[in-house]
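step: validate -> pass
step: tokenize input -> pass
step: predict -> running
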Amino acid sequence: MVSTKVAHPSWRGTERILLVALMLVFLLGTPGLGIETRDVSQTDAVAGAVYGVAFFAVLASLIASFRWPVVASWLGFLGGGTSATVTVLDLAGVFVGPPPVGMAGVDVAVAILGAAVVWRSWAHR
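step: predict -> pass
step: emit ->
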């Protein structure tokens, strides 16, 4: 059974700022847009799909936060958790090898912001 009780009736600006910050930092690591210098053609399609799910879940959470706080919380939980997990795996060199120093900084920022989004989303479940 899914609990529909909301700890806070609506999302505040701080939660939305966390979501926007996570999306912006995520974009810094996008090949061709940010500071990612590794050859991503060696990465399989599953990794790209997981990155896409993480980004679009956070975007959908931001959109839903204005009207549906419970849906936004579950999407934020999914997006933040997936973001944090994928970046920790990237730091470990699972996908294309170890990241360069700049990308490692982006990965750490995404992992911290992803964990913060999960923590704040949990309050709205």
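step: describe -> The chain has a mean pLDDT of 85.
step: cleanup -> pass
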